[in-house]
Design goal:
The complex is a heterodimer. By secondary structure, chain A is of the alpha+beta class. Chain A is built from two helices and six strands; from the N terminus they run βαββββαβ. Chain A has one domain: Alpha-Beta Plaits (2-Layer Sandwich). In chain A, a hairpin with a 2-residue loop joins strand 3 and strand 4. The longest helix of chain A has 12 residues. The termini of chain A are close together. By secondary structure, chain B is mainly α. Chain B has a single domain, classed as Orthogonal Bundle (Ammonium transporter fold). In chain B, helix 4 runs antiparallel to helix 6 and helix 9 crosses helix 11. Chain B is globular, with a radius of gyration of 20 Å. Classes of the chains: A alpha+beta, B mainly alpha.
Chain lengths: ~110, ~400
């Protein structure tokens, strides 16, 4: 079992969701985050006061998958999120120790899907 | 001899302030409907128009619209308000200072171009926006205002009835909205789902303030504190109420649930439709006008727009043009000399010719504003390019055009 965290551009969320659905990965958690990678921040100006290097709005996806879904999930995220420019984001993959479905008490692989 | 009436003057000045408030109200009405990365661009576009047209109007806009020039426009005879003083100008308003009439009309000239911006929300470059709006106000609004309201204007001479701006304001802006939406194209990613309005309470705030300001718009157009103003006040409130109810009921039947957004859309559509009729019709026709405007606008916005796939993002065409056309034609149906002896009777009061007069004015306004807007759009596009770049649209217009954002995520 793997736990995937992906950071993507906000405007690519719809594309990524579409690709994930095509790959039959339907269970995702989405949150709005601020972040800073290699992409420069956008300058903001308030009454003449400049604020450079501000953190950029990003979207964080969290997806738990069984091992046989890992490649398809990573491909889907990459395909949906890539523009080719700096700032497209990152995908982090972690081993996941366990998973429990609260409703039934099921544990492990079966609880993911 | 002083013909100035203190009550009339006070009412027109208060009405002017009420109508001014409608533009910031529109900013919140529209601003709530867009995504949060674009809300400031909407507010900015509305507010900068207050600045831009206020200056344009006193310099030459008022003169172009209301100076008794030729049939097409008024010319520059009142440039810089030269000759527009504090004595009444009886052709427009016999009991208030001429400048009171001027500043009341200024507020109409401000909100009319602002109505259009709902059509191209979330994707127009700010520089292009400014040039487009100045040209549109000067070359589209000012002439049409002159035709319908100005001394010597050719539609006024033909007997067109437009109490507070159905053709001049709502049809001219509404059809221009369609023209710009067609020219600028759809927003990115629209096929993957319509963006959700980011702040519905803003839409309600805007609706409430528009409704409030509209009493100045319509009842103020009596240009006197008299019974006609009261009639306009009462039918305005009635039509807005009936239309809001009607839209909610239509949604209930069509989608299974009434929505707040639907009620607000209906109320605004009702205000639009009663605008040209408010000084000529009584309260029962106002209810009919209100109910039917919601039927027509709902069909335009919810059924026709998705089929034809033009991206009139915030329904400036669907509400203002469709509602304005219905209001102008309804004036030709329901107008009555019992309400306003200086007006005319409509079709249902034995004068079918008035309906044809209204139909003609609607057609002329649509044709002139639509074609004129297409040309202006092309000109501005050649000058600076109208549409924001793909990257600017992705980031949002707030940051890309103004270096500001409306909401922080942390702190």
């Amino acid at each position: 079992m793997k736990y995937i965290i992906a950071i993507i551009q906000p405007h690519k969320l719809e594309d990524v969701k579409e690709e994930l659905y095509k790959a039959e990965v339907n269970l995702i958690t989405v949150s709005e985050v601020l972040g800073h990678g290699r992409q420069k921040g956008v300058t903001e100006v308030y009454r003449g006061a400049r604020e450079t290097g501000n953190l950029l709005r990003k979207i964080r996806l969290e997806i738990a998958v069984n091992d046989n879904f890992l490649d398809a999930t990573i491909n889907a995220i990459t395909k949906g999120a890539r523009t080719g420019n700096v700032g497209d984001g990152k995908i982090f993959v972690m081993d996941m120790k366990d998973c429990v479905r609260i409703r039934t008490g099921e544990v492990g692989s079966i609880a993911i899907g | 001899m002083n013909l100035i009436n203190a009550g009339d003057t006070a009412w027109v000045l208060v009405s002017s302030a009420l109508v001014l408030l409608m533009t910031p109200a529109l900013a919140f009405f529209y601003g709530g409907m867009v995504r949060k990365k674009n809300v400031l661009s909407i507010l900015m576009q509305c507010m900068i128009i207050v600045g831009l047209i206020s200056v344009q109007w006193v310099l030459f806009g008022y003169s172009l619209s209301f100076h008794p020039g030729n049939g097409f426009w008024g010319g520059f005879g009142w440039f810089g308000l030269n000759g527009v003083g504090f004595d009444p100008y009886p052709d427009y308003a016999a009991t208030i200072p001429h400048q009171a009439f001027m500043i009341f009309q200024a507020m109409f000239a401000i909100i009319t171009p602002a109505l259009i911006l709902g059509a191209f929300a979330e994707r127009m470059k700010f520089s292009a926006f400014l040039i487009f709006m100045l040209l549109w106000a000067t070359l589209i609004y000012d002439p049409i205002a002159h035709w319908v309201w100005g001394v010597g204007g050719w539609l006024r001479t033909k007997g067109t009835l437009d109490f507070a701006g159905g053709t001049v304001v709502h049809i001219s802006a509404g059809i221009a909205a369609l023209a710009t939406a067609l020219m600028i194209g759809r927003r990115k990613n629209l096929d993957k789902g319509t963006p959700t309005p980011h702040n519905m309470p803003f839409v309600v705030l805007g609706t409430g303030l528009l409704w409030f300001g509209w009493f100045g718009f319509n009842a103020g157009s009596a240009l006197a504190a008299n019974g006609l103003a009261v009639n306009a006040f009462v039918v305005t409130n009635t039509a807005a109420a009936a239309a809001g109810l009607a839209w909610a009921v239509i949604e209930w039947m069509h989608n299974g649930k009434p929505t707040l957004f639907g009620f607000c859309s209906g109320a605004v559509a009702g205000l639009v439709a009663i605008t040209p009729a408010s000084g000529f019709v009584s309260v029962v026709p106002a209810i009919i006008i209100g109910i039917l405007v919601s039927v027509f606008c709902f069909i335009a916005v919810a059924l026709i727009k998705p089929k034809l796939r033009y991206d009139d993002s915030l329904d400036a065409f669907g509400v203002h043009c469709i509602g304005g056309i219905w209001g102008a034609l309804a004036t030709g149906l329901f107008a009555s000399k019992i309400v306003n002896p200086t007006g005319a009777d409509g079709l249902f009061f034995g004068n079918p010719a008035q309906f044809m007069t209204q139909l003609f004015a609607v057609g002329v306004t649509i044709a002139y504003s639509f074609v004129g807007t297409l040309i202006l759009y092309k000109v501005v596009d050649m000058m600076v390019g109208v549409r924001a770049s793909e990257e600017e649209e992705n980031i949002g217009l707030d940051l890309s055009q103004h270096s500001e954002r409306a909401y922080t995520v942390i702190e």
